[in-house]
Amino acid sequence: MSAEPIRVLVTGAAGQIAYSLLYSIAKGDVFGKDQPIILILLDIPPMLPVLDGVVMELQDCALPILKEVIPTDKVEVAFKDIDAAILVGSMPRKEGMERKDLLKANVAIFKTQGAALDKYAKKTVKVVVVGNPANTNCLIASKSAPSIPKENFSCLTRLDHNRACSQVAMRCGVSSDQVKNVIIWGNHSSTQYPDVHHAKVNLQGAETEAYQAIKDDAWLRGDFISTVQQRGAAVIKARKLSSAMSAAKAICDHMRDIWFGTKEGEFVSMGVYASGNSYNIPEDLIYSFPVQIKNKTWKVVDGLPINDFSRAKMDATAAELVEERDTALDFLSQ
Q1: Where does substrate bind (predicted)?
Q2: Binding site feature residues for NAD(+)
Protein backbone atom coordinates (compact mmCIF):
# COMPACT_ATOMS: atom_id res chain seq x y z
CA MET A 1 0.00 0.00 0.00
CA SER A 2 1.90 3.00 -1.25
CA ALA A 3 -0.97 5.49 -1.33
CA GLU A 4 -0.65 8.51 0.96
CA PRO A 5 -3.11 8.30 3.86
CA ILE A 6 -6.10 10.62 3.69
CA ARG A 7 -7.31 12.47 6.76
CA VAL A 8 -10.98 11.88 7.54
CA LEU A 9 -12.78 13.77 10.30
CA VAL A 10 -15.95 12.53 11.99
CA THR A 11 -17.63 14.87 14.50
CA GLY A 12 -20.03 13.70 17.19
CA ALA A 13 -17.64 10.77 17.20
CA ALA A 14 -18.73 9.40 20.58
CA GLY A 15 -22.36 9.24 19.45
CA GLN A 16 -24.37 6.30 18.16
CA ILE A 17 -24.33 7.12 14.43
CA ALA A 18 -20.54 7.40 14.57
CA TYR A 19 -20.35 4.07 16.41
CA SER A 20 -21.97 2.40 13.39
CA LEU A 21 -20.05 4.53 10.90
CA LEU A 22 -16.42 4.41 12.00
CA TYR A 23 -15.92 0.68 11.42
CA SER A 24 -17.19 0.92 7.84
CA ILE A 25 -14.85 3.82 7.07
CA ALA A 26 -11.89 2.17 8.77
CA LYS A 27 -12.31 -1.10 6.91
CA GLY A 28 -12.37 0.56 3.50
CA ASP A 29 -16.06 0.58 2.55
CA VAL A 30 -16.05 4.29 1.75
CA PHE A 31 -12.70 5.47 0.39
CA GLY A 32 -11.51 2.12 -0.97
CA LYS A 33 -9.87 -1.04 0.34
CA ASP A 34 -6.34 0.17 -0.51
CA GLN A 35 -6.65 3.75 0.71
CA PRO A 36 -4.86 4.23 4.06
CA ILE A 37 -6.79 6.42 6.48
CA ILE A 38 -6.06 8.67 9.43
CA LEU A 39 -9.31 8.98 11.40
CA ILE A 40 -9.84 12.11 13.45
CA LEU A 41 -12.60 11.94 16.03
CA LEU A 42 -14.03 15.19 17.39
CA ASP A 43 -16.49 15.51 20.24
CA ILE A 44 -17.24 17.79 23.17
CA PRO A 45 -15.00 17.62 26.31
CA PRO A 46 -17.45 15.59 28.49
CA MET A 47 -17.42 12.85 25.82
CA LEU A 48 -13.63 12.38 25.75
CA PRO A 49 -13.61 9.34 28.08
CA VAL A 50 -16.19 7.65 25.84
CA LEU A 51 -14.10 8.59 22.82
CA ASP A 52 -11.11 6.82 24.37
CA GLY A 53 -13.22 3.66 24.48
CA VAL A 54 -14.08 4.06 20.79
CA VAL A 55 -10.38 4.46 20.00
CA MET A 56 -9.60 1.26 21.91
CA GLU A 57 -12.22 -0.61 19.92
CA LEU A 58 -10.93 0.71 16.61
CA GLN A 59 -7.44 -0.45 17.61
CA ASP A 60 -8.90 -3.84 18.57
CA CYS A 61 -10.47 -4.23 15.13
CA ALA A 62 -6.88 -4.57 13.83
CA LEU A 63 -7.71 -2.95 10.50
CA PRO A 64 -4.88 -2.82 7.94
CA ILE A 65 -5.72 0.54 6.32
CA LEU A 66 -6.32 2.42 9.56
CA LYS A 67 -2.99 4.15 10.12
CA GLU A 68 -3.85 6.38 13.06
CA VAL A 69 -6.80 7.45 15.20
CA ILE A 70 -6.77 10.91 16.77
CA PRO A 71 -9.43 11.70 19.41
CA THR A 72 -9.79 15.41 20.23
CA ASP A 73 -12.08 18.15 21.51
CA LYS A 74 -10.11 20.90 19.72
CA VAL A 75 -11.11 22.20 16.29
CA GLU A 76 -7.56 23.21 15.39
CA VAL A 77 -6.49 19.58 15.78
CA ALA A 78 -9.64 18.11 14.23
CA PHE A 79 -9.80 20.16 11.04
CA LYS A 80 -6.06 20.32 10.26
CA ASP A 81 -5.35 19.37 6.61
CA ILE A 82 -8.40 17.10 6.34
CA ASP A 83 -9.52 15.57 3.02
CA ALA A 84 -13.05 14.71 4.15
CA ALA A 85 -15.32 15.90 6.95
CA ILE A 86 -18.44 14.09 8.11
CA LEU A 87 -20.22 16.47 10.45
CA VAL A 88 -22.52 14.26 12.51
CA GLY A 89 -22.42 16.16 15.77
CA SER A 90 -25.18 18.72 16.36
CA MET A 91 -27.47 19.90 19.10
CA PRO A 92 -30.33 17.36 19.26
CA ARG A 93 -33.87 18.58 19.73
CA LYS A 94 -34.93 18.21 23.35
CA GLU A 95 -38.53 17.74 24.38
CA GLY A 96 -40.46 21.01 24.44
CA MET A 97 -37.71 22.77 22.49
CA GLU A 98 -38.80 25.29 19.88
CA ARG A 99 -37.37 24.79 16.40
CA LYS A 100 -36.00 28.33 16.66
CA ASP A 101 -33.96 27.48 19.77
CA LEU A 102 -32.66 24.39 17.99
CA LEU A 103 -31.59 26.52 15.01
CA LYS A 104 -29.88 29.06 17.24
CA ALA A 105 -27.81 26.40 19.04
CA ASN A 106 -26.81 24.78 15.76
CA VAL A 107 -25.91 28.05 14.04
CA ALA A 108 -23.30 28.54 16.77
CA ILE A 109 -21.88 25.03 16.26
CA PHE A 110 -21.73 25.16 12.47
CA LYS A 111 -20.41 28.70 12.39
CA THR A 112 -17.48 27.48 14.52
CA GLN A 113 -16.93 24.39 12.39
CA GLY A 114 -17.22 26.34 9.13
CA ALA A 115 -14.62 28.81 10.40
CA ALA A 116 -12.35 25.89 11.36
CA LEU A 117 -12.75 24.36 7.89
CA ASP A 118 -11.87 27.73 6.40
CA LYS A 119 -8.78 28.14 8.56
CA TYR A 120 -7.34 24.61 8.84
CA ALA A 121 -8.74 22.19 6.23
CA LYS A 122 -7.49 21.50 2.71
CA LYS A 123 -9.34 23.67 0.19
CA THR A 124 -10.31 20.47 -1.63
CA VAL A 125 -12.05 19.05 1.46
CA LYS A 126 -15.42 17.34 0.89
CA VAL A 127 -17.87 18.16 3.66
CA VAL A 128 -21.02 16.17 4.41
CA VAL A 129 -23.38 17.53 7.04
CA VAL A 130 -25.53 14.99 8.85
CA GLY A 131 -26.48 16.77 12.09
CA ASN A 132 -29.98 18.25 11.94
CA PRO A 133 -31.38 20.55 10.68
CA ALA A 134 -28.87 19.27 8.11
CA ASN A 135 -29.66 21.51 5.12
CA THR A 136 -29.47 24.73 7.10
CA ASN A 137 -26.47 23.59 9.17
CA CYS A 138 -24.71 22.86 5.88
CA LEU A 139 -25.55 26.32 4.55
CA ILE A 140 -24.21 27.98 7.71
CA ALA A 141 -20.99 25.93 7.59
CA SER A 142 -20.45 26.86 3.95
CA LYS A 143 -21.13 30.55 4.54
CA SER A 144 -18.64 30.44 7.42
CA ALA A 145 -15.97 28.93 5.14
CA PRO A 146 -15.76 31.39 2.23
CA SER A 147 -12.41 30.05 0.96
CA ILE A 148 -13.80 26.55 0.36
CA PRO A 149 -15.88 26.10 -2.81
CA LYS A 150 -19.62 25.95 -2.17
CA GLU A 151 -19.75 22.79 -4.30
CA ASN A 152 -17.65 20.97 -1.69
CA PHE A 153 -20.53 21.07 0.79
CA SER A 154 -23.46 18.67 0.81
CA CYS A 155 -25.95 17.39 3.34
CA LEU A 156 -27.30 13.90 3.83
CA THR A 157 -30.64 13.01 2.25
CA ARG A 158 -29.37 9.59 1.17
CA LEU A 159 -31.09 7.98 4.16
CA ASP A 160 -34.43 9.27 2.87
CA HIS A 161 -33.42 8.17 -0.64
CA ASN A 162 -32.59 4.66 0.59
CA ARG A 163 -35.85 4.52 2.55
CA ALA A 164 -37.83 5.43 -0.57
CA CYS A 165 -35.89 2.93 -2.66
CA SER A 166 -36.54 0.16 -0.18
CA GLN A 167 -40.28 0.93 0.10
CA VAL A 168 -40.63 0.65 -3.70
CA ALA A 169 -38.58 -2.54 -3.80
CA MET A 170 -40.62 -4.21 -1.06
CA ARG A 171 -43.86 -3.20 -2.76
CA CYS A 172 -42.67 -4.77 -6.03
CA GLY A 173 -41.20 -7.86 -4.40
CA VAL A 174 -37.69 -7.20 -5.73
CA SER A 175 -34.37 -6.44 -4.00
CA SER A 176 -33.52 -2.77 -3.57
CA ASP A 177 -30.71 -2.87 -6.16
CA GLN A 178 -33.45 -3.43 -8.77
CA VAL A 179 -34.80 0.08 -8.09
CA LYS A 180 -33.04 3.22 -9.31
CA ASN A 181 -33.53 6.95 -9.69
CA VAL A 182 -35.92 7.68 -6.87
CA ILE A 183 -35.54 11.33 -5.85
CA ILE A 184 -35.72 13.18 -2.55
CA TRP A 185 -36.46 16.86 -3.16
CA GLY A 186 -35.88 19.58 -0.61
CA ASN A 187 -35.36 19.55 3.13
CA HIS A 188 -34.27 16.62 5.28
CA SER A 189 -37.42 17.07 7.33
CA SER A 190 -41.01 15.86 7.19
CA THR A 191 -41.68 18.28 4.29
CA GLN A 192 -39.24 16.44 2.01
CA TYR A 193 -40.77 15.13 -1.20
CA PRO A 194 -39.94 11.51 -2.11
CA ASP A 195 -40.61 11.37 -5.87
CA VAL A 196 -40.80 8.18 -7.94
CA HIS A 197 -42.09 9.70 -11.19
CA HIS A 198 -38.65 9.14 -12.73
CA ALA A 199 -37.76 5.93 -10.92
CA LYS A 200 -37.28 2.60 -12.68
CA VAL A 201 -37.83 -0.91 -11.37
CA ASN A 202 -36.20 -3.94 -12.94
CA LEU A 203 -38.98 -6.55 -13.16
CA GLN A 204 -37.75 -9.90 -14.54
CA GLY A 205 -35.06 -8.15 -16.56
CA ALA A 206 -37.37 -5.46 -18.00
CA GLU A 207 -36.87 -1.85 -16.89
CA THR A 208 -40.30 -0.56 -15.87
CA GLU A 209 -41.48 2.88 -14.73
CA ALA A 210 -42.17 2.75 -10.98
CA TYR A 211 -45.78 3.88 -11.45
CA GLN A 212 -46.32 1.02 -13.96
CA ALA A 213 -44.57 -1.52 -11.76
CA ILE A 214 -46.57 -0.63 -8.65
CA LYS A 215 -49.94 0.09 -10.29
CA ASP A 216 -51.26 1.84 -7.21
CA ASP A 217 -51.22 5.61 -7.65
CA ALA A 218 -53.15 6.21 -4.42
CA TRP A 219 -50.42 4.49 -2.40
CA LEU A 220 -47.61 6.28 -4.28
CA ARG A 221 -49.20 9.69 -3.69
CA GLY A 222 -50.28 8.95 -0.13
CA ASP A 223 -48.90 6.36 2.26
CA PHE A 224 -45.63 5.91 0.37
CA ILE A 225 -44.77 9.58 0.76
CA SER A 226 -45.83 9.86 4.40
CA THR A 227 -44.02 6.61 5.33
CA VAL A 228 -40.73 7.96 3.98
CA GLN A 229 -41.31 11.43 5.48
CA GLN A 230 -42.13 10.02 8.93
CA ARG A 231 -39.72 7.08 9.00
CA GLY A 232 -37.24 8.70 11.39
CA ALA A 233 -39.99 9.33 13.93
CA ALA A 234 -41.25 5.75 13.52
CA VAL A 235 -37.78 4.37 14.30
CA ILE A 236 -37.50 6.58 17.40
CA LYS A 237 -40.92 5.45 18.59
CA ALA A 238 -39.90 1.80 18.20
CA ARG A 239 -36.26 1.86 19.37
CA LYS A 240 -36.43 4.87 21.71
CA LEU A 241 -33.29 5.96 19.82
CA SER A 242 -32.87 7.65 16.47
CA SER A 243 -31.79 5.82 13.29
CA ALA A 244 -28.11 4.97 13.58
CA MET A 245 -27.29 1.84 11.58
CA SER A 246 -29.28 3.05 8.57
CA ALA A 247 -27.95 6.61 8.91
CA ALA A 248 -24.36 5.32 8.98
CA LYS A 249 -25.01 3.16 5.89
CA ALA A 250 -26.44 6.19 4.07
CA ILE A 251 -23.42 8.33 5.00
CA CYS A 252 -21.15 5.63 3.55
CA ASP A 253 -23.21 5.53 0.32
CA HIS A 254 -23.18 9.34 0.04
CA MET A 255 -19.44 9.76 0.63
CA ARG A 256 -18.45 6.76 -1.53
CA ASP A 257 -20.48 8.21 -4.42
CA ILE A 258 -18.73 11.56 -4.01
CA TRP A 259 -15.36 9.80 -4.01
CA PHE A 260 -15.93 7.29 -6.82
CA GLY A 261 -18.90 8.71 -8.77
CA THR A 262 -22.38 7.43 -9.59
CA LYS A 263 -23.15 4.63 -12.04
CA GLU A 264 -23.87 5.45 -15.67
CA GLY A 265 -27.57 6.31 -16.15
CA GLU A 266 -28.23 6.54 -12.41
CA PHE A 267 -28.67 9.43 -10.06
CA VAL A 268 -28.80 9.78 -6.28
CA SER A 269 -30.20 12.38 -3.91
CA MET A 270 -28.11 14.82 -1.90
CA GLY A 271 -28.57 18.27 -0.45
CA VAL A 272 -26.45 20.69 -2.49
CA TYR A 273 -26.32 24.39 -3.36
CA ALA A 274 -29.40 25.31 -5.40
CA SER A 275 -27.64 28.04 -7.42
CA GLY A 276 -28.29 27.75 -11.14
CA ASN A 277 -30.81 24.90 -10.86
CA SER A 278 -33.40 24.49 -13.60
CA TYR A 279 -36.30 23.69 -11.24
CA ASN A 280 -37.09 27.22 -10.03
CA ILE A 281 -35.83 26.49 -6.54
CA PRO A 282 -34.60 29.64 -4.73
CA GLU A 283 -30.84 30.02 -5.23
CA ASP A 284 -29.29 30.52 -1.80
CA LEU A 285 -30.37 27.20 -0.28
CA ILE A 286 -28.99 23.76 0.35
CA TYR A 287 -31.77 21.70 -1.26
CA SER A 288 -31.90 18.00 -2.05
CA PHE A 289 -31.77 17.30 -5.80
CA PRO A 290 -31.12 14.31 -8.02
CA VAL A 291 -27.40 14.45 -8.84
CA GLN A 292 -24.85 12.61 -10.91
CA ILE A 293 -21.24 12.59 -9.75
CA LYS A 294 -18.04 12.30 -11.75
CA ASN A 295 -14.44 13.16 -10.76
CA LYS A 296 -15.66 14.09 -7.27
CA THR A 297 -17.94 16.76 -8.81
CA TRP A 298 -21.72 16.65 -8.64
CA LYS A 299 -24.12 17.96 -11.24
CA VAL A 300 -27.87 18.37 -10.77
CA VAL A 301 -29.83 16.21 -13.21
CA ASP A 302 -31.61 18.83 -15.29
CA GLY A 303 -34.74 18.81 -17.40
CA LEU A 304 -36.82 16.13 -15.66
CA PRO A 305 -40.50 16.88 -16.37
CA ILE A 306 -42.30 18.05 -13.23
CA ASN A 307 -46.08 17.68 -12.93
CA ASP A 308 -48.37 19.88 -10.81
CA PHE A 309 -48.45 17.35 -7.95
CA SER A 310 -44.66 17.36 -7.73
CA ARG A 311 -44.36 21.12 -8.22
CA ALA A 312 -46.54 21.87 -5.18
CA LYS A 313 -44.54 19.51 -2.98
CA MET A 314 -41.17 20.82 -4.23
CA ASP A 315 -42.28 24.39 -3.52
CA ALA A 316 -43.61 23.56 -0.05
CA THR A 317 -40.30 22.09 1.13
CA ALA A 318 -38.42 25.02 -0.47
CA ALA A 319 -40.61 27.45 1.48
CA GLU A 320 -39.70 25.71 4.73
CA LEU A 321 -35.99 25.93 3.83
CA VAL A 322 -36.25 29.65 3.01
CA GLU A 323 -37.83 30.26 6.41
CA GLU A 324 -35.15 28.18 8.18
CA ARG A 325 -32.39 29.96 6.28
CA ASP A 326 -33.71 33.44 7.09
CA THR A 327 -34.02 32.61 10.80
CA ALA A 328 -30.53 31.08 10.83
CA LEU A 329 -28.96 34.02 8.99
CA ASP A 330 -30.49 36.40 11.55
CA PHE A 331 -28.70 34.44 14.29
CA LEU A 332 -25.51 34.30 12.23
CA SER A 333 -25.34 38.09 11.90
CA GLN A 334 -25.94 38.67 15.63
Answers
A1: 93, 99, 132, 163
A2: 43, 106, 130-132
Please name which of 136, 80, 85 lies closest in space to residue 111, comparing C-alpha atoms: 136
**Three-state DSSP class for residue 82:** coil
Q: Which residues are annotated as a binding site?
A: 43, 93, 99, 106, 130-132, 163
- Told to judge if 188 belongs to the known catalytic residues of this protein, a careful annotator would answer yes
Reported as a single tens digit per residue, the pLDDT across 33-87 is 999 999 999 999 999 999 999 999 999 999 999 999 999 999 999 999 999 999 9
Rg (CA), the chain: 19
Query: To the nearest 10°, the Cα dihedral for 94, 251, 55, 116?
Result: -70
* Helix ranges (DSSP H) in the chain: 16-26, 48-60, 75-78, 99-120, 134-143, 158-172, 210-214, 217-221, 223-239, 245-260, 308-333
Per-residue pLDDT for 97 more than 80?
A: no
Cβ pair 127, 148 in contact under 8 A: yes
Q: How many CB atoms lie within 10 A of CB 107?
A: 23
d(CA 196, CA 182): 5
Q: Give yes or no for residue 278 having a pLDDT over 70.
A: yes
Distance CA 174, CA 155 (A): 29
Written as one string, the DSSP assignment of 91-144 is -PPPTT--HHHHHHHHHHHHHHHHHHHHHHS-TT-EEEE-SSSHHHHHHHHHHT
pLDDT in tens, 232-242: 999 999 999 89
Percent over 90 (pLDDT), the chain: 94
Catalytic residue among 188, 197, 198, 254: 188
φ, ψ for residue 42 (rounded to 5)? -110, 135
pTM, whole model, 2 decimals?
Answer: 0.97
Contacts of residue 103, Cβ cutoff 8 Å, sequence gap at least 6: 133, 136, 324, 327, 328, 331
Other Cβ atoms closer than 10 A to 105: 17
